[in-house]
Fold this protein.
Amino acid sequence: MNNSNSIQSNYFLIELQNLEKLSADLKVDYCIYCKSYNIIKHGKYKHLHRYKCKNCKRTFIPTTGTTIHYLNKRVKFLEYFSVVSKLGKLTIKELREKLGICTQTAFDWRHKLFTTYSHEFRQVDEMIYLKHIEKNFSQKGRKIQAYNMNLKRKAGKTNFVSYGNTSYIYSKTVKIGNYDERDLDRVLERSFNKNAQIIYSMNENFTKFIENNGIKKAICMNEKSIYGNEVKKVFYDDKTKELNKTITFKFRGVATKYLQLYLNFFSSFLSEKTNYELSKLICNNLVWFKFVQMEKIYEKLLRKVSKINEQFVHIKRYWKNEDRFSEFRFESLIGY
Ligand SMILES: [Zn+2]
């Protein structure tokens, strides 16, 4: 290890201690499994209090389910977190070389970190921009046993909408295959204030959606309105293009299974909202659960949301205690 590397890892060693302090200070009011408030302190795990739920009898610590749950090599992970939150667009090869980790770890950590950014949808209240983007259906990287040729032929494009204001973009998967204005209702229902000014790119579904929802202040970007030329230059439009390019060119396509994860992360990244902040790693105790349930979430996107009834072969990796979390809202991962 050369000198700069060792300074680097000393820095993250101290950061790990800071993270442990933050973890010890986390406030625990209810059981993370069944949400009961009937919990008691039940000994210690390393430097953290352990809790026991008197309702479901399970024990847990304050960081159970968060990004760092069951995470080994924590010092390295903090370095990874720092690199990815600052540089964002790095391929697996680049991550492997920069950090000296193996491919599987680089993938797992990426998905874990991107999941960390998956709960940050907010309602947009001011002027909002709305745009439709489509991507080819992709089973990239999928194990050959679980690869479905029919699915590839039948699925159609994966459609998502990108929306936002002058400082933030969000992107949500609508469905795989053709969608209509009712799908937009589902996806955009709580995304923005109906009295806001909407500027949208030409799309039949948007027009119907706007009509049906009685949205008065709407301007189509393609019309030669006063806004037209202005809008094309603004933050939002540039960022949306960059998001699209990042997925298509930098990553040479993303598996549909993981598309929403990438959309979540890169929407935040391009909006400059992915600063390195330790508290992000322990503030959401559904991250680990979403991470291990990715395959089920993908199946839900295919079957329930997109109504594709093709045979679905699960890729199964086993994770300790994954079935302990029974209640979970899928919205932020499949885009509604
Ligand atoms: Zn419980």
